[in-house]
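Saturday, quiet lab. Running sequence design on the structure tokens for the scaffold JK sent over.
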């Protein structure tokens, strides 16, 4: 079956406040349990805050290291799930159930299956 990455985005300003954190965490745990019990879940994690990010670039043989994410944006990448489902429609169905869908977004990306190189004779 094909694999898809569900990339979880949201603007921290739109996220539920501290008083709703416990209820929100329960929704995430329930969603993760449902994914796992379906057999679709292959992996996933939440990411630390964007102020912990470091971006690395190499330009003209010079390595440039900068604090923060790659792009300045209101929406941040907060985490991901790797799922194995029959098709894009199934992946979109899981994305639509995600607890942040009312205030964030989920980018659904197929995982590129790199073909095995031919065996050496």
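Result came back. Writing it out in full:
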């Amino acid at each position: 079956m094909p694999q898809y990455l569900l990339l979880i985005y949201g603007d921290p300003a739109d996220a539920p406040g501290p008083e709703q954190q416990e209820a929100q965490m329960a929704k995430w745990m329930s969603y993760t349990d449902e994914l796992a019990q379906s057999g679709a879940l292959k992996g996933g994690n939440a990411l630390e805050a964007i102020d912990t990010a470091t971006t690395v670039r190499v330009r003209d043989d010079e390595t440039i290291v900068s604090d923060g994410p790659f792009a300045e944006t209101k929406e941040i990448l907060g985490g991901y799930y790797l799922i194995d489902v029959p098709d894009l429609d199934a992946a979109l169905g899981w994305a639509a159930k995600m607890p942040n869908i009312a205030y964030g977004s989920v980018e659904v990306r197929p995982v590129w299956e790199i073909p095995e190189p031919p065996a050496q004779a």
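Notes for JK: Residues 50 and 68 are 6 Å apart (CA to CA). The two ends are 30 Å apart (CA to CA). Ask whether to fix the surface positions before the next round.
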